[in-house]
């Protein structure tokens, strides 16, 4: 049976490996964002809330909203990764069930919850143009970032559980 | 209702420092000072046993029960919170 020290060492090692992976994913996110801006796919189109605009339909307003969608989407992903990296740095130092850990998980969850807000802002911002494209309305709901919302709920719930763990640990620290 | 810790009394009687006792029983001085200050929530039997061995006393010399009325008259270090 693994001792407490061995388990802690295993957590610290795994945390350091995950830090490297998450930093790599952050770089990929930035490169992906830059690629999407410079070479949109499909070519000559802009997709807002599932609705595809092309040719003359890509007005200045659509272009700005699309850029905002891409940049904000990448920014939210980077912020979530940032909080997870900070969480892993704490784990790699052997700090488990602390208030800082709980805060990082909660902040990651709250950041993730902003993704539907960005989607909604884009939808409302481009509503007049989207309303005109009735044949594409069927694509709107599938484009809703439900995965981000689920991820947010999971992270926020996890932060509550970790907070319980923190309180149990604080209690345990007062056992002589 | 409260459990009073008389560790400081026993340390004075045996003329021992907190850090010395902590080292002998195998816990950190910070941990033992938690007990001394009355902030501890619980004490393990193993710790109590080692304290009694080092301080050459009985558990009753270290721990005492005081009712609320008594504690209002004589405030001391207490276990619990």
Descriptive overview:
Chain A has 6 helices and 2 strands; from the N terminus they run H-E-E-H-H-H-H-H. With 176 residues, chain A is mostly helical. Chain A has one domain. The longest helix of chain A has 35 residues. Chain B contains 6 helices and 3 strands. Classes of the chains: A mainly alpha (176), B alpha+beta (81).
SSE blueprint and pairings:
The complex is a heterodimer of chains A (176) and B (81).
Chain A: H1 4-38, E1 45-48, E2 51-54, H2 60-92, H3 99-112, H4 114-125, H5 127-132, H6 146-173
Antiparallel strand pairs in A: 1-2
Chain B: E1 2-5, H1 7-14, H2 18-25, H3 29-36, H4 45-55, H5 59-62, E2 63-66, H6 68-73, E3 78-79
Antiparallel strand pairs in B: 1-2, 1-3
Helix pairs in contact in B: 2-3
Explain briefly what this protein structure is:
The complex is a heterodimer of chains A (176) and B (81). Chain A is mainly α and 176 residues long. Helices cover 73% and strands 5% of the residues of chain A.
């Amino acid at each position: 049976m693994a001792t407490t020290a061995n388990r802690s060492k295993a957590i610290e090692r795994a945390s350091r490996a995950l830090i490297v992976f998450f930093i790599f994913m952050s770089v990929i996110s930035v490169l992906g964002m830059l690629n999407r801006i410079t070479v949109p796919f499909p070519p000559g189109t802009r997709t807002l809330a599932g609705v595809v605009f092309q040719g003359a339909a890509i007005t200045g307003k659509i272009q700005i909203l699309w850029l905002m969608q891409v940049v904000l989407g990448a920014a939210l992903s980077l912020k979530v990764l940032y909080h997870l990296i900070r969480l892993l740095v704490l784990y790699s130092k052997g700090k488990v069930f602390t208030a800082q850990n709980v805060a990082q998980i909660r902040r990651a969850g709250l950041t993730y919850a902003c993704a539907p807000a960005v989607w909604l802002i884009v939808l409302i911002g481009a509503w007049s143009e989207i309303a005109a494209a009735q044949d594409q309305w069927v694509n709107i709901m599938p484009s809703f970032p439900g995965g981000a919302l689920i991820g947010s709920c999971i992270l926020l719930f996890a932060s509550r559980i970790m907070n319980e763990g923190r309180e149990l640990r604080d209690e345990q620290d007062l056992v002589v | 209702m409260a459990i009073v810790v008389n560790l400081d009394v026993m340390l004075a009687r045996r003329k021992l420092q907190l850090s010395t006792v902590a080292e002998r029983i195998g816990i950190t001085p910070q941990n033992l000072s938690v007990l001394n200050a009355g902030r501890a929530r619980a004490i393990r039997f193993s710790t109590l046993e080692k304290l009694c061995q080092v301080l050459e006393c009985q558990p009753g010399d270290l721990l005492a029960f005081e009712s609320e009325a008594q504690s209002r008259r004589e405030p001391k270090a207490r276990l619990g919170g």
